[in-house]
TrEMBL record:
Superkingdom per UniProt: Eukaryota
Pfam family, one: DUF4750
Keyword terms, alphabetized: Membrane, Transmembrane, Transmembrane helix
InterPro entries listed in its UniProt record: DUF4750
Organism lineage: Eukaryota, Viridiplantae, Streptophyta, Embryophyta, Tracheophyta
Source organism: Brassica rapa subsp. trilocularis
Protein name: ATP synthase F0 subunit 8
Transmembrane segments: 6-34
Length: 80
């Protein structure tokens, strides 16, 4: 019976585990990429965490409430 050579041990203890780990990492990366493209990139909380969407601040208009509209229609100037 022939004894295993150095290359057989090398393949058994180094190459096979590296191939298994790389396969698992590629498999997880593929599914993460698909989940990101299909679902996660559309979730507002995830967009805010990763800085994908900038918050826009709109300035408030001068006459924004009912009270200011009332005083403008009356031409009333308050005496402070």
């Amino acid at each position: 019976m022939e004894s295993p050579s150095f290359l057989d041990y090398l393949f058994l203890f180094i190459v096979r585990p590296l191939l298994a780990i790389s396969f698992a990492v590629c498999f997880i990366a593929l599914w993460w990429f698909l989940a990101w493209k299909l679902v996660l990139s559309h979730v507002p909380l995830v967009q805010e965490i990763f800085g994908l969407r900038k918050k826009t601040f709109k300035p408030k208009p001068e006459s924004r409430g009912r009270i200011s509209k009332f005083y403008k229609s009356q031409n009333y100037v308050p005496q402070w």
